[in-house]
Amino acid sequence: MMKTLIKNGTVVNATGTATADVLIDGETIAAVLAPGSTLLGFDIERNVDTVIDAAGKYVIPGGIDAHTHMEMPFGGTFASDTFETGTRAAAWGGTTSIVDFVVQYPEESVIDRYQAWHEKAAGNCAIDYGFHQILSDVQDSSLTAMDELMNEGVTSFKLFMAYKGVFLSDDGQILRAFQRGAENGAMMMMHAENGAMIDVLVKQALEAGNTSPYHHGITRPWQAEEEATHRAIMIADLTGAPLYVVHVSAKQAVAQIAAARDRGLNIFGETCPQYLYLSLEDQLGAEGFEGAKWVCSTPLRSKHEGHQHHMWQSLRTNDIQMVSTDHCPFCMKDQKDMGIGDFSKIPNGIGSVEHRMDLMYQGVVTGQISLPRWVELTSTTPARMFGMYGRKGVIQPGADGDVVIYDPNGHTSIGLNKTHHMNMDYSAWEGFEIDGHVDTVLSRGRVIVDDKQYIGSKGDGRYIKRGLSQYLI
Ligand code: URP
Ligand code: ZN
Ligand code: ZN
Ligand code: ZN
């Protein structure tokens, strides 16, 4: 069993910072100590295998990205990152756990799909991974599958109010799934957009000859997001199920979540880096077909409506509790380009799993969020929200040795000449200059990224059997 000492770093947890040494014994954090201390007279430094000097650097719990879609079948193709390439890219960026979505399409067996996801992931992941389950047509068998999956460590279920014929559940189906979720103590997750409204707007736009990527944004207006968010909250309130609204982009949807929380409900919201930095005009509205790079749902919002400013604020006020990527990459060639001449055929999704920790650290650099809040939004709350806390999301004795050494004086230039490690032929973040740098990444006590070198292997990552949410009021 390898023993590693990370010394002289600034340990950052959601609760605060301290200069401390972190001792990792095998896969587990054994002690967090004042620098240079001995353990019952025992000279630690002389009794470990590896000493890492983290002076001047932050020692943080590894990032947890609770919203990814590796190899997701969608829009007639597959998300371009496999579990192998996607989790390796995540490791490069300081993320040591993901929670990926098992996809079930109408008529498919939920349990079969769950097993298929295990087959895709097992032996291929660089970091630990858990699963949420997507339910697309709620049958009686889906409800019994929900019961079964709770025992498998799948304690959260995503439903969709959009994508008719693909993912959409009607309100009655949603109600039934939420009732079962409430009985089981599950976390219900919602893609909150009014699909019926969107389908009409898309048809009208295409008929009027408005076929460019920009119109993807125009046909998914904030009203569709606000309305669906409100409806999802009402169903959660009625059934008593806790609700986690994924990829929130509109300030009006945030207001719905905030109002529900003010009423004491277990309603939570997630946003993604794209909604904090990118816009309808500057990215989706780019020249020609370029905007396809940023086609995702919910869409990028107008920079003239104050969504970004409001979203950063909601990260401070805890109206929005966490930041995930919704990593769902597609290449421009042979994937996004299926939608040339018809934006509705562009596969939806952006790839960011590698950049989330860096992008969110910029919020610390610019004074939008504090250092502990950075860790809370990207690691600690994801762990608590989805039943992993204690093992994940914190630097403390007994936790997994998932540790990132982050150099605030380092620098990262994103994207240029495909310097990223995601399996994409472009970067949605090209040109972003990051103050800060992921130096070293440990996954369960083993160094898997050593400055500018990935030294892990596929299959290092293990399945995380999750418990119930530890975030409920
Ligand atoms: O555009 C997106 N978000 N693609 C992934 C599927 C989803 O709705 O999360
Ligand atoms: Zn979604
Ligand atoms: Zn998603
Ligand atoms: Zn460095």
Automatic annotation (TrEMBL):
Gene Ontology MF term list: dihydropyrimidinase activity
Cofactor(s) required, per the database record: Zn(2+)
Assigned EC number: 3.5.2.2
Top-level division of the source organism's lineage: Bacteria
Annotated Gene3D superfamilies: Metal-dependent hydrolases, Urease, subunit C, domain 1
Hydrolase listed as a keyword: yes
Positions in coiled-coil regions: none
Domain Amidohydrolase-related: start-end pairs: 58-447
InterPro entries in the cross-refs: Amidohydro-rel, Hydantoinase/dihydroPyrase, Metal-dep_hydrolase_composite, Metal_Hydrolase, Metallo-dep_Hydrolases_sf
Keywords: Hydrolase, Metal-binding
Family: Belongs to the metallo-dependent hydrolases superfamily. Hydantoinase/dihydropyrimidinase family.
Protein name as it appears in the record: Dihydropyrimidinase
Name of the gene encoding the protein in the UniProt record: hydA
